[in-house]
Amino acid sequence: MTEVSSLTGRLLVATPALADPNFDRAVVLLLDHDEQGSLGVVLNRPTLVGVGDVLQPWAPLAGAPGVVFQGGPVALDSALGIAVIPGEEGPSPNSRLRSSGGDPIGWRRVHGAIGLVDLEAPPELLAGALGSLRIFAGYSGWGPGQLEDEVGEGAWYVVESEPGDVAFPVPEQLWRAVLRRQRSDLAMVATYPDDPSLN
What we know:
By secondary structure, the protein is α+β, with helices and mostly antiparallel strands.
């Protein structure tokens, strides 16, 4: 079996050709990717449900807009917290509220400054460390080889993530913003019309 090169921490940006309505103009942050499959969250699908309506203790730490985001079509009754720790690119054991690996207790690094938040932990443990937090209902998942097939078929662009993508202030503009910052022909895709038939 061929070894899978990990895309953990990268972004999947839906191409205009992707026909699945769950992922129309979606930007997915991959939280895990290996030979067993892939798991990520859609970063640009805000819901109308406030974080305070479902996870009140975390509401003050949630970035604007303070709503739950739909992370994908799988397990919509579960919640994931993703947060950025400012200035964190690698472990730095400079606080008593750090794990033995140097990361804040209740936060597990995914890639660079981006990590998963243990929503069972007391929010006050992380309050001083978090720069931005998003809460996601559900996730996006792919079985072994499925994501690689979709990328090969042209359904997704794979690009580098930036910490600012996690709590992008206007989520509906994230798809265009991520494409626009690419130093390749992908930047032109950002101008693709919402409805090509009106062109």
